[in-house]
Specification:
single chain, alpha/beta, Rossmann fold, Dihydrodipicolinate Reductase, domain 2, 2 domains, six-stranded parallel β-sheet, binds 1,4-dihydronicotinamide adenine dinucleotide, binds alpha-L-sorbopyranose
Length: 386
């Protein structure tokens, strides 16, 4: 059986998710490629050693360039804060490695354009981790749309609402610093909704947006790893938040559909409230990641006497069902979504085809994000140029 060696850069939240997927993908999908967790990079000896032990890597380094340049490494998996994606991805492409990079691909479209040029020149497989589109219920929505079950799409309403940083005392981590994150709620969570919009409806042509920074300073977090809202007595000094907490945007799609996106991390009571509702000429679809086994569907042809949404629980007859659990509603989790993402990445290598979504799509999402920022400043409709 073919085997490939993975080098992971970063040892935080996403290193855990990606390492689980690397170790679990063959148990679900039996792709015929063994993935070896070869090397992991972190910022210092203690963190690198600890990450290697916890996530099961043979070796560790405190210099990510050592990992990228190692001839034994076939796949570079980038799970560091956003400001590092460009340098790492370009170095990995220049070294001829296949690349998985966490979202957003870069801090803005100037960066993503350079990353895209590097992978196109190197002709390596490239996947940007907008993983939520891999949820079977989302893939099922795409299938229904492609089959014409809801007809021509009129409207897309997408939200990503969280509350982990709604408390002004929750720490100022890298996610609240423009020089590291690029943007706030927009890049961190709004981009997942842009990905849904592009995946399910089509390219966004124009945006009209508002953005807000409600909490203007927070206690500075010590250490590079984001504790995602968890407070510490150590954090006393306050620092300025220079990114958005919230964005709302109207959309015009190239195919004539219209819609909206809301993203905020200040929505008390909402945890990972990533939703879409899509209205077509012949029906509607609704998805909420907090209930990710379910797709709510309404087909107009069902007749007046049975009008109302019904719930489809995803299982074996649905996308990716052949590899997942044999009974619907046993439960799709975040780990399964990441395993599906890894399976698709391996299939792109095996079949020598493009990954979905690839860096080209990651670049387009950055172009839409840039247009949202520009529109918020100018208070005008702005073209995305995608
Ligand atoms: P985190 O803060 O938990 O971990 C980042 C790690 O990178 C830290 O341990 C830090 O020490 C390490 N790091 C920083 N500089 C480094 C360097 N030069 N070399 C090696 N390691 C370095 O961050 P998290 O949540 O894992 O986020 C990482 C990326 O994943 C971000 O781009 C984020 O937007 C994305 N993300 C995506 C998610 C998704 O659902 N697709 C979920 C969460 C994060
Ligand atoms: C924090 O908002 C975060 O971890 C994002 O960075 C991820 O992209 C999202 O999927 C979950 O929330």
């Amino acid at each position: 059986m073919k085997s490939l060696n993975v080098g992971m850069i970063g040892g935080g939240f996403m290193a855990k998710a990606h390492s689980l997927a690397i170790s679990g993908v063959n148990m679900f999908f039996d792709d015929g490629i063994v993935l070896n967790r070869k090397m992991i990079a972190e910022v210092n000896e203690e963190m690198a050693k600890d990450a290697a032990r916890r996530f099961g890597y043979e070796k560790y380094t405190t210099n990510w360039r050592t990992l990228v340049e190692d001839p034994d490494i076939d796949i570079v998996d980038i799970v560091t804060p956003n400001n590092l994606h460009m340098e790492m991805a370009i170095a990995a492409a220049n070294a001829g490695k296949h690349i998985i990079c966490e979202k957003p691909l870069g801090r803005n479209s100037n960066e993503t354009k350079k990353i895209l040029a590097a992978v196109e020149k190197a002709n390596v497989k490239n996947l940007v981790a907008f993983n939520y589109r891999k949820t079977p219920a989302v893939a099922l929505a795409k299938k229904f749309i492609d089959e014409g079950s809801i007809g021509k799409i009129l409207n897309f309403r997408g939200t990503y609402l969280q509350d982990w940083s709604a408390d002004p005392e929750s720490p100022l981590s890298w996610r609240f610093k423009k020089d590291v994150a690029g943007s706030g709620a927009l890049g961190d969570i709004g981009t997942h909704v842009i990905d849904f919009a592009h995946f399910l409806v089509g390219k966004i042509d124009e945006v009209m947006s508002m953005s807000k920074t409600w909490i203007k300073d927070r206690p500075i977090q010590t250490g590079g790893l984001d504790t995602l809202g968890n407070k510490s007595a150590e954090n006393t000094e306050r620092g300025v938040v220079d990114v958005d907490d919230e964005i709302s945007t109207l959309l015009r799609f190239k195919n004539g559909a219209v819609g909206s996106i809301e993203a905020t991390r200040n929505a008390w009571g909402r945890n990972n409230f990533l939703t879409f509702e899509i209205h077509g000429e012949k029906g509607s679809l609704y998805f909420n990641y907090e209930r990710r086994d379910e797709l709510q569907v309404f087909f107009a042809e069902d007749g007046d006497d049975r009008r109302g949404f019904k719930t489809v629980y995803t299982g074996t007859p649905h996308p990716y069902g052949e590899g997942l659990w044999p009974i619907p509603a046993i439960g799709i989790g975040y780990s399964e979504v990441k395993i599906i993402e890894m399976h698709d990445f391996l299939q792109a290598i095996i079949q020598d085809k493009e990954c979905e979504p690839n860096f080209n799509e990651g670049h387009k999402i950055a172009q839409v994000s840039d247009a949202i920022i520009e529109s918020s400043k100018k208070q005008k409709w702005v073209k995305t140029n995608v």
